[in-house]
Structures are given as structure tokens and as C-alpha cells.
Amino acid sequence: MLTIKCSGCKRKLWKYRKTGPGQVLRCHKSRITRKIESLEKDGRIMCPCGQVVGIDQGGFYKMISRAFIFTGTKDTS
Ligand SMILES: [Zn+2]
Predict the structure, then answer these.
(1) Tens digit of pLDDT for each residue in 25-70?
(2) Separation of 58 CA from ligand 1 center, angstroms?
(3) Ligand 1 mean position to 77 CA, how many Å?
(4) Could you tell me how far CA 51 lies from the centroid of its own chain?
(5) Which residues have their alpha-adjacent CB atom under 5 A from ion ligand 1?
(6) Pairwise CA distance, residues 29 & 9, whole Å
């Protein structure tokens, strides 16, 4: 499980169950297990501090790599 955080203020935004290797380029909505402090506005998902961290693409958020960091481990199954 990964915890996605804002790169600007380090707030926790949501918990994400990532599968497979590689970078976090997208966050599929079905694998977001818990929203913490994220806000959705105008087709974007953002931190309460105002930083936009992703663009709503329907089934997933296209992530803006410089706008977030993550902690935790990727699921290997
Ligand atoms: Zn922030």
C-alpha cells in the first residue's frame, strides 16, 4: 500500500494499492482505498494547499510527477 503525499506541504492525500512495477504515473480510482485530504475540482485532484497533483481521466488520475511523493511499498501480487 502506498500513501500518496503532496510534494509541497507533505500532507497525506490518499492511500493507493499499486500493482506491478514502475513509476506511479496513474492512480486508478478503483485502487484508491481511502481518500484523506484530497480535493476534486474542475477535473483535477488537488491538495488542500492548492497544488494540483493529478488530472481526472475518468477511470484514473493522470499524476503530475513533480507534485507528489509517496511512501510505503508496492504490492507484488
Ligand atoms: Zn499540499
Answers:
(1) 999 999 999 999 999 999 999 999 999 999 999 999 999 999 999 9
(2) 23
(3) 31
(4) 12
(5) 6, 8-9, 11, 47, 49, 51
(6) 23
